[in-house]
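Dear colleague,

Thank you for sharing your sequence with our group. We've completed the structure prediction you requested, and as agreed, I am returning the results in plain text so they can be pasted directly into your records. Please verify that the sequence below matches your submission; if there's any discrepancy, let me know and we will rerun it promptly.
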Amino acid sequence: MVEIKKIAILGGGESGVGTALLAKKQGIMVFLSDKGRIKDKYREVLEHNEIEWEDQQHTESKIFDAQVVMKSPGIPDTAPLIQQLCKQGIQVLSEIEFASWFSQVPVIGITGSNGKTTVTNLVQHVLKEAGINSGMGGNVGNSYAKMVAEEEHDWFVLELSSFQLDGIENFNSHIAILTNITPDHLDRYDYKLENYIESKFRIVKNQTASDYFIYDADDQNITEWLAKNPVKSQLLPFSLEKTFENGAYLENENIVIKFNNTRFTMPTSDLALQGKHNTKNAMAAATVSQLLKIRKQTIRESMANFQGVEHRLEKVLKINNVLYINDSKATNVNATFYALESMESETVWIVGGVDKGNVYDDLLPLVNEKVKAIICLGVDNAKIVNAFGKIVENVVETNSMEEAVKIAYRLADKGDNVLLSPACASFDLFDNYEDRGRQFKDAVRKL
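Please find the predicted structure tokens below.
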């Protein structure tokens, strides 16, 4: 690593401000620039730490004066400014890569199209219950860079998005988890699934024979890639269909994890989070726990008392015997597939937002079986109406959460579910999926 005297940071959100704090601590001159408006809470941090910043513009002379540029995950590589920087030979990297330069703490890195937030929180929960000093962040919670700057830990548990992994060169997860790969964010990957798959597999790019790779062996995209691209790390698969000498599998409705002649078992009925996808999430987290030699009883108790993640199949309220469920974090088709699969009553489904190249075919059988009415919530709902209009009689278009929830209240009968599971990004009507989920919960509570 070359000695850095100046860094320019593009983006004044969590990752940008975290990088600024770490760079300042390392004695690096910092300039942070955001083309949009920086939120007040981040402005206050920048002012308090006397970090030079601007928003609603990019002063290119200051940006091009830096030796390296950290770009926030939301900025695509194709942005003209990024292209210009690369042409001039200025290194552009991610916050994850930058932070790793200043930390020797081993990382448990978790990526995947779905389930990564649940697995990240579940791993952190088990570690905390076991008394292990770990910090959780990355794509959830605090930025990795901020934790490196301000906290002392023995482990970091990081949720890693494909956008964050795109900007790494030397960063490594000692334990890497890949939950699954289904089409997502294809608008950022030239609408080519293979490009997105390559991005996800960057999590094993720097692994060695002393590292571990935990992955879903039922996922065709993962197994096909591994068949063509051998990795250096020790493989620990998990599956609902296969068995392994080293790995996690199902046996008589028990999770079994075998590793180096040790064996861990736990009935799936004891898991706090039910459903096939959550059995897999538990397998991934419990495999990490086995690697860290956490007591078996602690693992079982942690899996049984885990509270789940906000905005992921979160039960909000029951009104007139109708259950309202917030699954705002379902920003792609596969996540919504899991949500619909887990519905055991007739469902009024709130769906829609910014389409990322979605193909809805896989949802058709579940929608046909479980959905009594569809409420479209987006600026442009044409694709959803076209996909499901012929199999669901009642399809309503809305463009506000309050309206969507009021219509759902009218359409739902006793014993039904009202499910917000958008299968789309949120940026047409909301700040992010959290904002969308909170607006849903607020609207339900006002009924």
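Summary note from our side: The chain has a mean pLDDT of 94.

Kind regards,
the structure core
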